[in-house]
Amino acid sequence: MIEMQDVWKTYPDGSHALKGISVKVDQSDFLYVVGPSGAGKSTFMKLIYREERPTKGTIFVNGFNLEKLKQRKIPFVRRNIGVIFQDFRLLPKLTVYENVAFAMEVIEAPKKLIKKRTLEVLELVRLKDKINSLPTQLSGGEQQRVAIARAIVNSPSVIVADEPTGNLDPDTSWGIMKLMEEINFRGTTIIMATHNKEIVNTMRKRVLAIESGRLVRDEVRGDYGYED
């Protein structure tokens, strides 16, 4: 589903964010990306949905070579990738329902399908009773569940989650992780960058460890491996 071949990323100031990363991710994988702050985790994630482009190397996502992808094809590829951010990034003036439905409106899905699918995913994330609420009327955990619903509403093949529990208390974080595991069980690949040692060590999924831009560990049922 995702393959990186000798991927390097150098920023204009000369700093090397990634150095020779090669990795394969299969359908239905659930993997954590771990490492010290500044190791290159966020850059790794951004390359997958082409917010960043590699300086060198090749990236395939769902069979598409991202470097050879024509500009008009980028939205199509991104449609199959759900992105979840630590700071939620909800539209403050839209209701819960409207925030989720918006992701389908931008790809011009039929109105009947938008309504059906939006209600389905809001039920999955246990927020059907909050459809008319604004983001400011929700707890942090509820806002993150709206963000997850928005990420999965178009039935993406992969979800990229950058510190999705970073701003949440431990109990809420576990609720989010149970939801992510349920989504993964339904066949969606999940790639999650995290500093949450307890979650990684308890759930025991595949772990990619990045240090100073290099992939130093790729373990099935790995542990966190850091003290931070």
From TrEMBL:
Compartmental location: Cell membrane
Top-level taxon of origin: Bacteria
InterPro entries: AAA+_ATPase (IPR003593), ABC_transporter-like_ATP-bd (IPR003439), ABC_transporter-like_CS (IPR017871), ABC_transpr_LolD-like (IPR015854), Cell_div_FtsE (IPR005286), P-loop_NTPase (IPR027417)
GO cellular component: plasma membrane
Assigned keywords, A-Z: ATP-binding, Cell cycle, Cell division, Cell membrane, Membrane, Nucleotide-binding, Transport
SMART domains xrefs: AAA
Record membrane topology: Peripheral membrane protein
Gene Ontology molecular function: ATP binding; ATP hydrolysis activity; transmembrane transporter activity
Domain ABC transporter: 2-227
PROSITE patterns listed in its UniProt record: ABC_TRANSPORTER_1, ABC_TRANSPORTER_2
GO biological process, one term: cell division
Functional description taken from the UniProt entry: Part of the ABC transporter FtsEX involved in cellular division.
Subunit and interaction comment: Homodimer. Forms a membrane-associated complex with FtsX.
NCBIfam families: FtsE
Database matches in PANTHER family: CELL DIVISION ATP-BINDING PROTEIN FTSE, IMPORT ATP-BINDING PROTEIN
Protein name, per record: Cell division ATP-binding protein FtsE
